[in-house]
Amino acid sequence: AVNRPFEKSEFNQLWLRMQAYLQGMDVFVQDCYIGADPDYQVSLRVITEFAWHSLFARNMFVRINDFEELRNHKPEFTIIDLPNFKAIPELDGTHSEAFIIVNLEEKLILIGGTSYAGEIKKSAFTVMNFLLPEEDVLPMHCSANYGADLDDTALFFGLSGTGKTTLSNSHDRTLIGDDEHGWGDD
Prior knowledge:
This protein is of the alpha+beta class and 186 residues long. The protein is 28% helix and 29% strand. The relative contact order is 0.14.
């Protein structure tokens, strides 16, 4: 009910309009990885119109600290985030001025018409939700922590805003993470 197909011709037209919008504009770029486990990481480039969206991506994803690795970074997926670019529904085939379009074939994610930086995170996690099952890893939207014994691990599932982060931050337990996790053989 939420995800809807989008015609390739409309994607291409919207992408061309976004490129025209970008002409002469200063943007912010983060090269990073989605995923903490190097065996399943996906290289990513995030291009944003707002500095704070770039900072959000820098804090959300795995940074590349080695200069040589950064210089040779080749992103597998690219996210273009332009909050001030508004779609024209009659022209672009969108349902509103705001859009988040994940094109798995082009490995390109277009975000526009929304200042909510969380769409950067959500679209990247959508990519992982698509890719990880092919690697026999179950992607999970959950928080995780453990007690005094590593065998005492707890996962907290629920929709956004239902308290996963709050419940997983217990003074007597160690936080593993509070948003997305993958469960694989290792």
